[in-house]
Amino acid sequence: MPVAMKFAVLTIFPEMVAPFAAHGIVRRAVESGRVSISVVDIREFAAGRHRVTDDRPYGGGCGMVMKPEPLAAAVRAARRQMPEALTVHLTPQGRPFDQDLARQLAREKGLVLVCGRYEGVDERICQDFVDAEISIGDYVLTGGELAAMVVMDAVIRLIPGTLGHEDSAEQDSFCDGLLEHGHYTRPSRFEGHGVPEVLLSGNHAEIRRWRQETALIRTFLKRPDLLAQRPLSDAETAILKRWCRDIERLLQRQAEHRADASPGDQQEG
Ligand code: ADE
């Protein structure tokens, strides 16, 4: 089988990244030949007996900066092996990584992932050797390696054939802009809690409807920001309107109960 996607991870800590390919779905993807992952030690491209990869910043200040020469040589070597690959620098200054970007990257032939350490990499590398910068969130890690593994993990599972069920990725959270519905497995009672009846009913149309509805409501409750940016289908609009009506009815009934319980208050008010 031709390799669908090649990754090269450029790092001064190759031993941190190597085990990533040894487990679960990623391992299967590599073993099946769909994915190749090479971990490149930037130090091997550094000059001198000590193979130094960092230096003090021009202009002073704290921390060290990754020297440009070893990085440039490592990127060039990786690109020679993977001429069609996109070179990505993992940095908190990059484009926020999300499922859309993962889908976009999954269409690439290869990714050269440049992992910075210390205060960062020399700016001339960012300008001349990098096609894209990606951040995995608004926090600062000690290096880009974890970010590179996050990106690879999210991308690899989108490559056709890497997941057990071909349709699993299609039902993911975020796939159609919603969080995924809840999941249940045996036993049907666990520490006093059951499973929604409909999931035991065997009625697949009803199960589909329940999943669609709970995905929508769950997204509204947990991540309303996702819904705000996404057009609703007619079916989804109908679900939300029904919930609105149910909530209004409930509030109405509560108000009536209150009025029944304290008629005096009403007269005074
Ligand atoms: N390197 C350090 N912090 C990072 C982040 N949040 N995302 C990507 N790379 C990083």
* CATH domain topology of the domain at 5-156: Alpha/beta knot
Average pLDDT number: 95
Q: Main β-sheet: number of strands, strand sense, barrel status?
A: 5 strands, parallel
For the record, the CATH class of the domain at 5-156 is: Alpha Beta
Q: Widest sheet: strand order?
A: 2-1-6-5-7
* Counted beta strands: 7
List its traits.
269 residues, Alpha/beta knot, 5-stranded parallel beta sheet, 11 helices, 14% strand
Strands, helices and their partners?
Blueprint: E1 5-11, H1 14-17, H2 24-31, E2 35-41, E3 54-55, E4 65-66, H3 68-81, E5 86-96, H4 99-105, E6 110-115, H5 123-128, E7 132-135, H6 145-156, H7 197-200, H8 204-222, H9 224-228, H10 234-261, H11 263-268
Parallel strand pairs: 1-2, 1-6, 5-6, 5-7
Antiparallel strand pairs: 3-4
Bound molecules: adenine.
Residues 90-92, 135-137, 139-141, 144, 147 line the site of adenine.
Would you kindly provide a written description of the structure presented here, covering whatever features stand out?
The chain has helices at residues 14-17, 24-31, 68-81, 99-105, 123-128, 145-156, 197-200, 204-222, 224-228, 234-261, 263-268; strands spanning 5-11, 35-41, 54-55, 65-66, 86-96, 110-115, 132-135. By secondary structure, the chain is α/β, with parallel strands linked by helices. The protein has a domain at 5-156: SPOUT methyltransferase, trefoil knot domain (Alpha/beta knot, 3-Layer(aba) Sandwich), CATH 3.40.1280. The longest helix has 28 residues, at 234-261. Adenine binds at residues 90-92, 135-137, 139-141, 144, 147.
